[in-house]
Amino acid sequence: MNKFEDYQLEDFVQDLFFRKWVLGKLPPENQFWENWLKKYPKKRILIEEAKSLVIASQIENIDIPKQQIQEGISAILYRTETHSKSLHEQTWFRFAASIALVMLFTWIYTKSDFSKNISEKDNLSKATETENNGSQPLNLKLSDGSTVTLKKGSKLQVSNDFGLQTRTVFLTGEAFFEVQKDPQHPFLVYAGGIVTKVLGTSFNIRAYNNEAKTLVAVRTGRVTVYQEEKTNKRNQVHNEQILLTPNQQVVFEKKEEKLVKTLVESPVILLPSAENENFEYDETPIPKVLIQLEKAYGVKIIFDVELLANCNLTATFGDEPLYDKMGIICETIQARYEIADGQIVIYAKGCR
Fold it and tell me: Can you give the residue range of the structural domain that contains 316?
């Protein structure tokens, strides 16, 4: 859906797809934002301001809560607008205040996490260890009620101070976690060069030492994934943060030290069977079809509602994978789709 039409400044700054475009990290053939600006030229001033914020702050993939940014910006803008005398001054103060606020949040966030991670690494030498040498998965229950399904050939180390401030574990191999919700004690999994941080959710991690990639796939809830802290010669923290929701995964390329956000190989329907509608369509408008799929799978599908308004679909879907459904839809309307930053983006010419 064309959600961007209603975006405010902080929404664009926090949108990963938008930041990738600003920083030149989308494929050259991906012209979504250029085409979007042509369609909504009145948004150009807002877009330029948001682009400047992203470039100035360089906060790619750092997930500062949207409400926190909005409240902070509102507070600063109230003061600057109250004391500025002209429209020019108001615009400048709004711009400068926004940059200062976003950069301040970024510094506080990374500084805090860096200090925490140093102490967490020290806990590795003070951890209890369980290794699965059998041929079947091993089920473990932690002291907080969380459960871990440890795959064969895998090892889990649990910090001795587990649950005091954080719930920290160290994984080598593969495991499926179902974490009990506890906002006061974040659950941290160190595995394969990255850290997975959650409050309460279920997810799978694959991090074998002899494999070039580490994978984190989310089944329910939300998790944050970032590379273990490293510093450059000036001791500046480089900490790329990625937020994952159900049916999304991140792939960490160990050699390149790069995190890539995408969708899982086979997205599953998230809605309970009682709430899930039948995928039967009879000359159904394509936007309605895509909205239903988006709701069922919990995957964002970006498309132009007006462009596809005259496109219809007659088909019956069953339990085929989501990507097969998308392929049939795109073939019907002579379109194509791409997976970008854990979202599905549809490129189409419309229908007469």
Answer: 280-347
